[in-house]
Amino acid sequence: MAFGAVRALDGVSLTISPGECIGLIGHNGAGKSTAVNVINGGLTPTGGSVEYTLPNGGTGRGAAVARSCGVRSVFQELSLCPNLTVEETIRVPHRDLGGFGWRKTARKRISSALDRVFPGHGIDPGATVGDLTLAERQMVEIATGFAEGSIAARLVILDEPTSSLDSAVAKQLLDHVRAFCAAGGAVVFISHMLGEVFDVATRIDVMKDGKVIVSGAASEFTQQGLIDAMGHVAGLKAKAATSTGRGSHIGEEVLTTPDGLSARRGEIVGLAGLAGHGQAEALARFFMSRSAGLRHTRNPEVTFVAGDRGRDGVMALWSILQNLTLTTLPKLLRGGLVDRKAEVVLADDWRKKIGIRTDNMNNPILSLSGGNQQKVLFARSLASSAPIVVMDDPMRGVDVGTKQEAYEMIRQEAEAGRTFLWYSTETDEVIQCDRVFVFRNGQISAELTGTDISEENILAASFEMHEAAS
């Protein structure tokens, strides 16, 4: 599969059979999303072909045949329409919904799917998509992929399906994937969360530079073996920093909020707990309180790394370079005009630092994979002069190797005096922090420091208030 001179896929060969869950892994830009769009018929291959087996045993090609074979996709970049209700969104992929009474049928389909995949979800089918949290939108999109319809789902492609879900909700999805495959369905599971891949995959295919370089039964691999196969020198997973002297650089208090959050200069403060319990809202309130007004333009107090890049981060019509340098433009002004040479140097420097996979920073931002778009947003904030960095689940869709580099970069910036407020749904990220506030029902249920920052304590605090109220 080629886009002009760029070969996104090179000789990829995949066979997917009923009952299989294929774990498809690789670094950002390895070709996974392109492979997905070729499999589901969204892209017509420039070489080779994709053949589907119909329910009656016949075969065919093309997007229409893919749909009639029950091929469905759940994309990393969520594709729900924000102005529609939950029940209305299912009508977009389910083309049989129409005529008198379609809304009642749509409501039943999405409600039933949400109940099966995410028991206790609490999502109203009549709610407007734009009013849902990022995690709830991801749950709706996943449920739509598994929902019943006139054509049953036979192959569901999940591209980073748990990137916005906390561990409890992610476990519900993994349980459903196993049950779906046990009943004869098939799943292509794309994730940078290697533990999840091992939980559900029967076979694992490793992609690199548009090729499948390793393929085999999941039982034949170890997590470190997969990382080695991907060709990155990063370690298996994040570990809390325990080096001598950690925290010695932390200074005076630089922020407090009505929510009870506080942080000191050079401190990395984590926000944890089940998704949708007020963490993102607390960050947004603090950011807005410190960023409004013209005086913050040239000398910003705070900068923001969005987790929902489609809604809050990426300028879709701009280039990679323009997206990256947005927060630093006031510093690049010379006589009222942007110094384009300095802008290019700055962007190229961060491209190398954070490993953005592109050969031309003037390419559109949407030409990048989702993980590489997230790297641009991360670089945009770190390139600014703001002493406080607010991060709303910033590693969504970023590969394990790049995460390790980002953790080290955050630690270095903190040691130089920068303060971080970091919300994450991943425990491996939260334990990087010097202090952690656990949220439950919009309130702080625990403050953890030092050796108390552990998965067990975070989970206990996440459920403590709920148990007390019941």
UniProtKB/TrEMBL annotation:
Keyword flag Transmembrane helix: no
The ABC transporter domain, residue ranges: 1-234, 236-466
Pfam families xrefs: ABC_tran
Keywords: ATP-binding, Nucleotide-binding, Repeat, Sugar transport, Transport
Keyword Nucleotide-binding: yes
Listed PROSITE patterns: ABC_TRANSPORTER_1, ABC_TRANSPORTER_2
A GO term, aspect molecular function: ATP binding
Domain of life (superkingdom): Bacteria
Family: Belongs to the ABC transporter superfamily.
Protein name, entry field: Sugar ABC transporter ATP-binding protein
Organism: Roseibium algae
Lineage: Bacteria, Pseudomonadati, Pseudomonadota, Alphaproteobacteria, Hyphomicrobiales
